Amino acid sequence: xxxxxxxxxxxxxxxxxxxxxxxxxxxxxxxxxxxxxxxxxxxxxxxxxxxxxxxxxxxxxxxxxxxxxxxxxxxxxxxxxxxxxxxxxxxxxxxxxxxxxxxxxxxxxxxxxxxxxxxxxxxxxxxxxxxxxxxxxxxxxxxxxxxxxxxxxxxx
Length: 156
Hints:
Layout: E1 2-3, E2 6-7, H1 10-13, E3 18-23, E4 29-34, E5 45-46, E6 58-60, E7 67-68, E8 81-84, E9 90-91, E10 104-107, E11 114-115, E12 128-131, H2 136-141, E13 152-154
Parallel strand pairs: 5-7, 6-8, 7-9, 8-10, 9-11, 10-12, 12-13
Antiparallel strand pairs: 1-2, 3-4
């Protein structure tokens, strides 16, 4: 990618991708992250809106991820499945809101993460949230998780 007078090495210069705003025809601004595979993210926190609108259908987050920010994946209309590692302790408001193609979420954490409001808002295709089999009841009774009680199932 050209960056003014020199070429950028995306892996070296921008290990988490390159984010920039592009004005649309209707005056809204959109954030774009280019040259990046979500499965390569190595940070402990996925910041607010970081992966918003980034096209990728299957995501297996790195084992180091502990927190997912507000609207981190908001309106990602290609995301179908996501696996959250066992270290995830907190998921922010509407983290996966309007991920209209999201059908499956797998959580590896035995202890239910603290979740914000409406983490799966308008995810109408969401069929199942799998959790460790020894933790099903704990998830179903944890604060804010009870609204997903019918979708919470034991993982294989």
